[in-house]
Amino acid sequence: MKNLALLAALLAPVPALADINPADWDAVTAEAEGQTVFWNAWGGSTTTNDFIAWVGQRVMEDYGVTLEHVKLTDTADAVTRVLSEKQAGEDDDGAVDMIWINGANFAAMKEADLLFGPYAEQLPNWAFVDVDGKTVQTDFTVPTEGFESPWAMAQVVFIHDTADIPAPLADMNAILEWSAANPGRFTYPQPPDFLGTTFLKQALVDLMDDPSALATPATDANYDAVTEPLWTFLDALTPTLWRAGRAYPATGPAQLQLIADGEVDLAVSFSPGEATAAIANNQLPDTVRTFVLEKGTIGNASFVAIPYNSGSKAGAMVVANFLMSPEAQARAQDPNILGYGTVLDMDALSADDRALFDALELGIATLSPAELGTVQAEPHPSWMTRIADDWMNRYGVAQ
Amino acid sequence: MPHRLHMAGDTGWLGHIRSRRFLLLLPALTLLAMLGPVFAGLWGTLLPAFGHLPAAGQIGPSLDPFRDLVAWPGLPRAMLLSVTTGLLATSISLAIVMLVTAGWSGTRAFRVLERLLSPLLSVPHAAAAFGLAFLIAPSGWLSRVMSPGLTGWERPPDWLIVQDNWGLTMTAGLIVKEVPFLLLITLAALGQADARRSVTVAQALGYGRVTGWLKTVFPRVYAQIRPPVYVVLAYAMSVVDVAVILGPNTPPPLSVQIVKWMSDPDLAMRLEGAAGALVQLALVVGALVFWRLGEWVIARLGRRWIASGARGRFDPLVARLALLSGAACALAVLLGLGVLAIWSFAGFWGFPDALPDQFTWRNWMRFGPGTQDAMAETALIAIVAASVALVLTIGCLEAEHRYGLTFSRRAVWLLYLPLLIPQTAFLPGLQTLMLNIGADAGRLPVILAHLVFVLPYVFLSLADPYRAWDTRMGTIAAALRASPNGVLWRIRLPMLLRPILTALAVGLAVSVGQYLATLLIGGGRVATLTTEAVALASGGDRRAIAVYGLMQTGAALVPFALALLIPALVWRNRQGLRHG
Residue A161's CB: how many other CB atoms inside 10 A? Predict the structure, then answer.
């Protein structure tokens, strides 16, 4: 096997310059050996950072690939970086080899031809991916077409301290009522933070009788009417928020600190296992639990994409493939490590691999797949962009 | 005898030629290292500000970016915040430092305060800001210590202290950091001001300590520390990291908003960001002009005050208040660091417990290994950048001294450009330039980018003490047949050991604290303690922030400790040089 890979590497014509063929996996692994992959991923969650460090160890052991985690505060930084490289004519060895991406950032990069691919569906571990049961081939309604590979499933849950909120709240109006009765005890991350805008989308989806209008791009004709319930809701909610809405936490994990500090009792999360992992890391009290809304909550997948000008595409594909391996997926799903949902189809796995997942305890604050209920679709990215802009003009400059 | 003298003159003359060539080269090299990137970057800002950014499909010129900027509802507030925090932070910290020095220099209390404050200079702004936030937030440590016993709070009150809309907490965060900076600069200047004798004379004439100092020493000291004061003003107006941690975000100060626009995936937003950057530049220039006018007014009032002969009735009260403020600054940073230390060892720590449920090594085990690589990178970049800056600076100043190259004195404002222009205005342009000339993102370009910021700070820290050196020493040495280089190496540099080490330490601290330059020019591939800490900051994990903040503090602490320690050790037998 190793000799074959070597042979393939020797035979491959000018491998450094020609883009490698993702379907020729032996050639990919051969070229990947010794490469360094700069993975630009949001660095705001220490549990995720630890997981990425572990991935780095494993791909070094198995493939000789060095993984460097470039910790971003905002994924848009990496997008900007690739854009300015293209502008400057740096087409062969850009600074970014792989990006943790989804939604508007993916749509923007795909549209501007900044991505390498299609590669995702040629990776060996794609065979295990639950293509039918999970939204891994569309990203916020935009078809991925193999330009990004999934590595985690996410779904909105609400984290609540049972010491203060004993029972789950049924819907957004119940949250509003509770917040009005308990002023200053709820907040959400400040848009355009992705979790903050996710809360806004979740609120809109839950407030609409029929969210189907959100599946297609927002238009000037329908935008005002469709989003009207959201602004009514927020106008009522904002004065009851923590600090009366004059300040917001910067990110999702910052809300966890607020719960631990006793400043708020309720927080939104995009990871069903986050609360359990945070309890294990002493970031949350063990009285914390999670719930979903009665009508269900928004879910999506996290992807990785490879910029067109990466100089380590083979290495990046090796990492992307490893992320979809049963080993990495089971570790990511372990609530004591990360608590991310898997993208794999349990029925496609061997008995041994399935046992990895079966052995996982859910964790005290994690809902079972059945309890997570209906997964609602992400609106088209154009909604998120416009709603975030409007939010900033309405509430982001409050005096 | 005449023959020997002639020979000595010959070798001296040859050496003179060689060093003359080298020295003449240095000012040009310095200007290039400092201003080349700035002008290139500025060009990259000016064009998009006036609507020209072909990469985003925009061909100018047009005023649309400014129209978009004015249409942003947060603009007036963001501009106001930038001006008020800058002016308040600068004037308050300057007042504290001047009054403390006036009332207490030479006393035991002053030496204690000096020892407390000086090392605090090394605490990076971000770490100090985190410490302050952990301390004074409604759920912060002060509140925890007093709850529920004194306050009756079972839950933290819903008060907007950190991130208040007026930016007062942010101003406080800047003050606690600028007071040590200005104090160290003042101490370096005091040695040249002959303060003790002036105050003695004033006191003999019946003036109070503070009044006597202000009337006789202050004008001389201020003339020397003026550049750093301007730097503080420009910095406080355009700071990003402190503003992100302590400042308001509905809307944020202008500099933070510019960073947001500049990093928007929609390239068209860069036009608005570039326009905002020009507005920020105008604000800073305007504030500096305002400050200069204020100096003029104060000088006129001061002369009248001096002529009035008032001896200073309230001196003891003023002095005590100043000492109290100075001590409060020191205490805020020290306690903040203490709270960081507690968090770095904390297990679960809920409100209102004064201490965590349990102490654990777990946080250090988790985050410690990650800090080591970043520490090595930080140290390497800082040491190279600061050393290069120091050599260039001394070369420039020596060339000015020997050959009357007063070019840099007349054009001293050139030094300020990298400090006056918001980094966000020229760094993206700089990034494009480096890519264009084929300089790959990596350590070397980052060092060069750091040099842009490190050089002016080192120069500004060193220039005035260097120029204020008594040249009669050199004349005496020359009369004793010392060559110009001999005077430099054997007389001038040793006498200026303290300001030189201070300048080096400032350069190191500036490099350690660089965020945007490291992130943008390093293409994210160069991970220093600061980039790692700021990335973590958005996640709000206090344990991780505490570990990185303490490591960051450590990285900058050592040079400043040495800057104080080495002169004291080297000159332990030279009383008169200790303040030099």
Answer: 20
